[in-house]
Each structure stands twice: as C-alpha cells, then as structure tokens.
Amino acid sequence: MNRRQFLKSALFTTIGTVVLAACKKVATDTKNLIDKVFTKKYKNLDISVVGFGMMRLPQKDGEPDIEKTQSMVDYAIEHGINYFDTAWFYHNGKSELATGTVLSKYPRKSYYLADKMPLRILKDKTEVIPIFEEQLKKCQTNYFDFYLTHNINKREWKVLKECNVYEQLLEKKKEGKIKYLGFSIHDTPELLEEVVNTYKWDFVQLPINPIDWTTVDAKRQYDIATKAGIPIVVMNPLKGGQLSTLTEKAAEILKAEKPSASPSSWSLRYSASLPNVFVVLSGMSELEQVIDNVKTFINFKPLSQNEQAVLSKAINVYNSSGAISCTYCQYCTGCPVGIDIPKNFLIYNQYKSNNRKDRFIIAYETIKEENRADKCINCGICKNKCPQKLDIPSLLKEVSNVYKSLK
Ligand code: SF4
Ligand code: SF4
pTM of the prediction? Predict the structure, then answer.
C-alpha cells in the first residue's frame, strides 16, 4: 500500500468509526428515550411496581405460545418491567419452562424472577429439594430472586411444617440459590398471623383489590403484614379479570372521570398506591394488556382522594349487580361429577355485566351437559377449596335457576 492508498484507507476507516459511533449513540439515546414504568424500592433493589404474572400466557395448542409471550416480555422489559412471577402449577407446569425460554436472552441480573414451592403436591420432606432443583432447571437459572411457599391454607400449613419446608429453603437461601424467601396465602387473617409469627419472612404475596379490601379481609391481611414489617407483593389485583370489565354501568362511572384510562388501570393503581406494596402482579395474556399496563405505570401516581371516591362508587355499582366473587383461579377443580365451576360462574357474571339473556342461554348450552351447574349433587367437596370462601353449591343452584327461568 502506497502513502496515497494508506491515507485513503485511513480516511475511510476514520469516517466509518465516526459514523458507527454516531449510530451507536443514536441507538443508545433512543433506548434512553423510551419511558420506563415506575419503580419502588425493595431493600436496595429498584423493582417495577407492575410485575409480569406468568399464569395467563397466550396459548397455542393448549400450551403457552412462546412467540407471542416473547414479544410481550420484550415489550415489558423494554419499558422497565423487571419482575416475573411463575409457579409449578401455572399452565400445568409449562409456565416455568416458558418463563425460562423467554427470559434466557436477557442477562440474568437484568430482571427479578419469582417461583414457588408447590406445597399441595408434597408427600414427604425428601421431595422439597428435588422439586426446587427441577424448577431452577426449568427456568434456566441457578438462583431465584424471590421464592415463595405457594398458597398456604390450613392443609398446606400443616404440610409446610411436617415436611420442614421452611428449614430446607432457608438452607437454599444460605447457598445463594434464593435471595428472598416469602409465602403466598389464601386464607384467614388468623392463619396469616400464625404464619407471620412462626417464621421470619422477607415478603408475602397477598390477594388485594378494591373488592376484596373489605369483603374478603384484604385490609386486615394488609395490616397484619405491615405491622409485622413484611413487604407485600399483590396478587389477583383484578379479581380474576372481573375488575378489568366490571359492568357497563360501573365502567361508565370510571370512563366519565378519566376517558382514556381502562377499568384495569384503576384497580392496579389502587393496589400500587398502598405504601407497603412493592409490586403488583398482572397476569397478562395479550400484548395490548402489556401496553396498557406500561401506560398506567409510566408516571404512576397514587390514586387521589377524589379518584378513590370515584372507584369506590363504581365498585358499589358493580357489587350490586349480583356478580359472583369468583376469580376463576381453578382451585376448586376435581369435582367428582365433573362440574366446570369457574366456567359456569364466568358466564353468569358476563350475564350480570351485559344483561344479555340470549347470550347467557347460548353460553350455558355450549357447556357440555355433564359440566353444567344443574348437575351439582351438593356433595360439598369443592367448598373448602375456594380461597374466596364461596358457597359453590348454592351459587351453582342460582346459575341453574337463572338458566331455567330465562329459557
Ligand atoms: S358440591 Fe357440586 S360442584 Fe362441588 S364438588 Fe360436589 S358436585 Fe361438584
Ligand atoms: S369458585 Fe372459588 S376456587 Fe373455584 S374458581 Fe372460583 S374463586 Fe376459584
């Protein structure tokens, strides 16, 4: 290469480097320009106040749709959502696998991952660690930031103690495989009090939403955790989706106050406004929900007094509609005669929301005959399984009677 060729080559290299640096800067600036959701402090961590619940993922052929889930998670992460919550039971064991797959492209330290010990399936103490290790593998990680004993109720509390679950998980915490150890609970304030006073916990996951706040002791539970100094993760903030639709009349009240805000955004902000709550989980199924949640929590502000009053008015109107307080959690499945309890309650609630008799009749008749409300034999097996303490047999009778009266 002669001097002329050398200078030409050097000039192009320099121009190339400058252009590349400029492009990188534009890319970085663009990235920095993307608005991020509000974060709250948990110890020294900055956690997005809205967390991604991986229990209602979009589905394809009966399994989580990885392609759609990936684009939802990408959008969430791009906008600052950094808390992901999965569990053994979600999507029949496939949620943990899907979570591991879609998060694997991101550096492990860029997000917080929560998983749970499935107390319900434990037969003895030797099963705890193998299940935990399997969960790590399924999630493609070597530690969980947040790890919970899942869904404590009277039966599971006994299992937790008999199988030394806490003690074994504490060992995992000492090994660094669990950063923070907590529990989720769907039971009475009395049991919550006992659990809180028996072991030392880093956090608790509680069902909190504007309906449960007074009707299912959510306020009392919040107060117990707060008094014990235990920060709260909120689950079920939309009461199984009921608060994302409400009834037409209730939704109109919210719309009149804030035309661009979805009903979901009101209830999510309600829980996020509570000082001892550091993350509110939203089980997202569509990209539109991720976009709406991001919109809600960018520039998040707690509900004002006026907004609290408006929401409370809408909830009163909704409650007076006679909808069943079912969250469609499916904990009551396993009916000996095969009644599809959540499905029957869902179509009943839709009827209470839209008052469309024709739609209710069609929906009821699309349920297989053997799964319909009128086939309940009132054996009572399902009653103790319902975290909402619903009198399922009586409510099924009501669904069946309404069908008969409209037919
Ligand atoms: S009470 Fe009715 S719905 Fe419940 S388990 Fe028995 S038959 Fe099934
Ligand atoms: S009836 Fe109770 S247990 Fe069954 S889906 Fe509804 S809330 Fe869950």
Answer: 0.83
